[in-house]
Specification:
Mean pLDDT: 92
Number of domains: 1
CATH class: Alpha Beta
Radius of gyration: 16 Å
Strand content: 15-25%
Helix content: 10-25%
Shape: globular
Distance between the termini: 41 Å
CATH architecture: Alpha-Beta Complex
CATH topology: tt1808, chain A
């Protein structure tokens, strides 16, 4: 699949290799393959999903879940969705996640990640995080408010009844022996 030609969501979804690893996304009519995650990215993704799912039943955190948010088809690193919105059928999630988390890889364009986040926010996402491991920062969007840049001991907004979580605590999740 070429990543330059603009195509429709229907045409994109009919492509045979969009579920290859790493997954393909459709953003603004342009198919592109996600970056291959690094070790810290993978650990953070796993540990954050486990943390969220350990502390809330109201929401479910899912890694790399294809979402259908026409005309986009994003695959957030972590999609957190109210359990009542999840289908009993397998397949992509139809709609924006309630909370999405993107973990910026060194080769990823921050502006492209922000476009995906802003599209989801304008289509129902309530909360978004953009985690930048190298800068030890997390950009946070709450609905239609301007983003906050959080670091260190800043307490992060979450959905559900999660215990307080700071940026430092999230960054510790890049380590193998992370314990909440």
């Amino acid at each position: 699949m070429q990543s330059v030609k603009k195509i429709s969501l229907a045409e994109f979804l009919s492509q045979p290799n969009i579920e290859a690893s790493p997954a393909w996304e459709l953003i603004n009519g342009k198919p592109s393959q996600k970056s291959m995650p690094t070790l810290f990215h993978s650990r953070l993704q796993r540990n954050l999903v486990n943390y969220i799912n350990q502390y809330t039943n109201q929401f479910e955190a899912v890694q790399e879940l294809r979402c259908l948010v026409p005309p986009y088809s994003p695959v957030p690193d972590i999609a957190i969705i109210n359990s009542s919105r999840l289908s009993d059928e397998d397949g992509p999630f139809n709609g924006s996640p309630d909370w999405l988390i993107e973990i910026r890889s060194p080769d990823q364009n921050t502006l492209e990640l922000q476009k995906k986040i802003l599209h989801c926010l304008s289509n129902g996402t309530q909360l978004a995080w953009l985690i930048d491991i190298s800068r030890q920062q997390i950009w946070v969007w709450l609905a239609d408010e301007l983003p906050l840049v959080c670091s260190g001991l800043d307490i992060l907004p979450t959905l559900g009844d999660l215990p307080e979580l700071t940026v430092n605590a999230v960054m510790m999740m890049t380590q193998r022996h992370y314990c909440p």
